[in-house]
C-alpha cells in the first residue's frame, strides 16, 4: 500500500485540498462517441466507470492507456492498461472492442502513444470520451487541447469527492500530495509546450502554496523551465 508516514491532516489542510480538488475537476455532458479513451492510474474505479459508459452504448470501443509509474509500480503486477483491460473483460466487454496501450508513463505519452496505436489499427476516430480520476480531468482537457486539437472530446470521471478518493492502495495524505503535484504540472506544463494555459484563481494558488509549505510536496515534478 502507498501509505506514507505523515503528519496529521489538519482541517485547514483539508479545506485547502478541497479547493484544489474542485478546481481540477471537469465533467462534461457525454454524447455518443467513437471511443472511450481511458487514461489509467492507480484507481480501478475508472476502469469500472469505462465499463458503465460502454454498457450505456456511449461508444463501442475502449482504449486503455498506461504503463507503470511512481504510484502503480508498487500496486499492479502488470501495466495499468492491462490491469484495467482485465476488468473490462471480466465484465463481458468483447475482447475485439478493447485496445491496450501499455508503454506510456505520463499524460503526454498517453495521448501520443494512443494516437499512434489507433493509426496502426487504421481506425478513424473523430470523437472520444476521455476519462480519468476526477482530480486529473482538467489536466486531461488542457493536454488534449494542445496535443490532439483535431479530436472532438468530452471529459468525465467517476463521481466521488476528495474524502472518498482514498482506496486500498493510497491514503488521503498521498491523495493530497498527488493533487498538489497535478496543480504544479498545470502551472508548469504550458511553458514546456505540453498543454494549453489555464487561468488559476489566487485562492487556488494560495491553497497550493499553503499545502506545499505544510509538507505536501511528494508529487512535485522535477522538470525545469
TrEMBL record:
Record-annotated DUF218 domain positions: 34-150
Pfam families hit by this protein: DUF218 (PF02698)
Gene Ontology CC: one annotated term: plasma membrane
Cross-referenced InterPro entries: Cell_Envelope_Assoc (IPR051599), DUF218 (IPR003848), Rossmann-like_a/b/a_fold (IPR014729)
Residues annotated as signal peptide: none
Protein origin, superkingdom: Bacteria
Family matches, as CDD domains: YdcF-like
Protein name in the entry: DUF218 domain-containing protein
